[in-house]
Amino acid sequence: MGRKKNEPDWTVSTTLIILFVSLVLCALIYAFVSAVLTSPVSDSESLAFAEDKGGCCKGIEMLEFWGAVVRKGSDFKFNNSEGCCNACKSMCTGNGPCLCDTWVFCGNRHSCGSRFGECWLKKQKDSLAPEQQETGEAGWTSGLIFGKGEGIIGLETEYGTLRVKLFPECAPHSVAHILELLSLYRCGGCQFYRAESRSGSWDSQVNHLKNAAFGPPFALIQGTLEVEGTIFKKIPHEYCPPFRRGSVAWVGSGPEFFISLANHREWKKQYPVFGSVLPEDLHIAERISTLPTIFDVWNNINVAVLEKPVPLMLRKIKKSGEDFNTKADSA
């Protein structure tokens, strides 16, 4: 496209100078971006990411958590739910158990009246089975806080148990669904049915290789968390942390979900991440990704479907240090 007629004429020397400066700037920018995109992510960094929820502070409206009161809301008020959430988080630091794992905020001026702004901080007997009631009115908003080593559930398979750290502050509706599944006697229908390894598109640090295809294969294992005989409620789109190896996310609004086996920066915020597999358990996901598959086409995309789906069960993990995989590894 040519220059506009009212733009001034440039001399040859001026043009060469501008071209030289542009080339230098492009080289510097390319070097910086390359360094960022190819920087390796170690297992320890992945675990740190699993404990860092990106500063989110989200809750669920029209829901009131019960539990032992740590701080009365009658004399403890905020202008918004984020302030109440952060007050609870401030009591959940260090390596010990959280003094507060539940916050309840009254944020609707009409419904709350004189109680508007009240922030109740509470402690659950079991943070994976919080006492609660649906209020049915836009008054109370509640949220959970999981400290270090807490809020971990297990996806139990015949190949071992994948321990997943949940992110309730970023994905409260997603975590609520997972906790509801935990309360069921069984998870009939829950399974992994798709498995695709990293192939040659990612390096040893699980970063995508330059000029390599993004898929297929897509470096993931995919399944469903829908229980047979129940009606699944679509999960609203929630905050999306960056995709790392081990990220657990919904496909759309669920109940299909997947576990990423590589760093998928190209996905950005396309899928809602609600948890992360602990690094020491990712070898189980890798093992599932190598099981026999058959090829299929979904919406013009080539996929690898497991010849034999892998059933899974959800279970509570009381401590992150519990090891359920020793027996599976030795089998």
Automatic annotation (TrEMBL):
Transmembrane segments: 12-33
Lineage: superkingdom: Eukaryota
Keyword field contains Chloroplast: no
Domain PPIase cyclophilin-type: start-end pairs: 154-302
Keywords assigned: Membrane, Transmembrane, Transmembrane helix
InterPro entries, sorted: Cyclophilin-like_dom_sf, Cyclophilin-type_PPIase_dom
GO molecular function, one term: peptidyl-prolyl cis-trans isomerase activity
Record's protein name: PPIase cyclophilin-type domain-containing protein
Species classification: Eukaryota, Viridiplantae, Streptophyta, Embryophyta, Tracheophyta
